[in-house]
Amino acid sequence: MSGRFALFRWSQSLATLPGFPVGQAPHWNISPGNQVLFLRHVGGELQAASGRWGLTPPWLNDLSKSPAHARAETLSEQPMFREAFRQRRCLLPANGFYEWRGELRKRPFWLTGEGSLLHFAALWEAYPAGDQVYLSVAMITQPAAHLRRPLLLDEAQQHAWLAEDTPLAQLQALLLIPTPPLRERVLANLVNDPKLDAPECLTPA
User: Fold this and answer.
1) Which of 54, 103, 141, 191 would staple 148 via disulfide (CB 3.0–4.6 Å)?
2) Which residues contact 192 (CB under 8 A, 6 or more apart)?
3) Rounded to two decimals, what is the model's pTM?
């Protein structure tokens, strides 16, 4: 499962988007429950926002059960994700993500793309609480051999995913796109500590 990723470097064009958080800090070890940067369309305009990684629909009573992931194969049918899939799609920018492999002793791997940023398909929700509205997201994952990985979108697919008028059939087709080729390297075990959020997370084995 894609339980950790990193966003420690971004472009100037991303940093100048409306809603980009003031003082956005670099992170090397983002886990479910953390605040994450995400991109969405608001009135047809691309905007940035910050939300909790763990989807909290307005009707959810037990916030401890907020899912961090949504399976691409079933999200269009599940009540937790169905409405957000149709109306509240977003992207999670990342420099890469971590993957643990092995039978007895799992080793962490760092996976990146050709460019400086990857974009994960995701869903967002707004949770009203008193006079505050809290935003949250769920990462969409797809099967990759015996693992699950984020659903990665290229530039054209990103536009289609965010557009409010994309037909449902096209959205469902995006859920089936294969994982593109990725670069990977095995890491030391420092990243295993979820409290470590520093460049040392990427220390090679």
Assistant:
1) 141
2) 108
3) 0.95
